[in-house]
């Protein structure tokens, strides 16, 4: 599954068929989870309990998304997802960029990793609802 068609630079934000921000970011989070499941951490998309916080930088050539997720078994992970094309030093040249995810397991009480620009988004109710994840318990 490639998320690159969602990141085309000609998408008009006012166009009724343009995907909204939550759709794009949710797709990127799910793709990061899919790639992370191929690593030896022993989890998949079906183990996602909730997104605790996230940030994204969506560009036409190279996009980034970071998120901290909680799993149904109580573990927490920081995922850094990168996709797109990375421009070369010379104008007109570009190399196909990797579609990669960096996975770091976190302690249950550990603070979010440092992130200044773009900042962490802590208001995650809408993204969790978009992902059809249940609201946090009492």
Task: Give a written overview of the molecule.
The chain contains 2 helices and 5 strands. By secondary structure, the chain is of the alpha+beta class. Strands 1, 2, 3, 4 and 5 form a 5-stranded antiparallel sheet that branches. The longest helix has 17 residues. The N terminus is likely disordered.
SSE arrangement:
Blueprint: H1 21-37, E1 48-57, E2 62-71, E3 76-87, E4 94-96, E5 100-106, H2 125-130
Question: Nutshell version of this structure?
Answer:
The protein is built from two helices and five strands.
| Number of strand elements | 5
User: What's the multimeric state?
Assistant: single chain
Distance between the ends: 35 Å
How much strand?
25-35%
Q: Please tell me how large the radius of gyration is.
A: 16 Å
Tally of contiguous helical segments: 2
Structural class of the secondary elements? alpha+beta
Mean pLDDT: 80
Overall geometric form: globular
Low-confidence sequence ranges: 1-18
- The percent of residues in helical segments reads 10-25%
Pattern of helices and strands: HEEEEEH
How would a textbook summarize the main sheet?
5 strands, antiparallel
């Amino acid at each position: 599954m490639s998320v690159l068609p969602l990141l085309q630079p000609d998408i008009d934000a006012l166009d009724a068929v343009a995907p909204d921000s939550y759709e794009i970011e949710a797709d990127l989070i799910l793709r990061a989870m899919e790639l992370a499941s191929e690593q030896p951490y022993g989890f998949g998309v079906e183990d996602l309990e909730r997104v605790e916080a996230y940030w994204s930088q969506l560009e036409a050539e190279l996009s980034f998304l970071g998120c901290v997720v909680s799993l149904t078994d109580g573990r927490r992970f920081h995922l850094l997802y990168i996709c797109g094309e990375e421009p070369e030093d010379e104008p007109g040249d570009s190399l196909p960029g990797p579609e990669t995810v960096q996975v770091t397991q976190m302690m249950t009480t550990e603070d979010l990793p440092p992130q200044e620009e773009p900042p962490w988004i802590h208001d995650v109710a809408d993204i969790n609802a978009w992902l059809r994840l249940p609201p946090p318990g009492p």
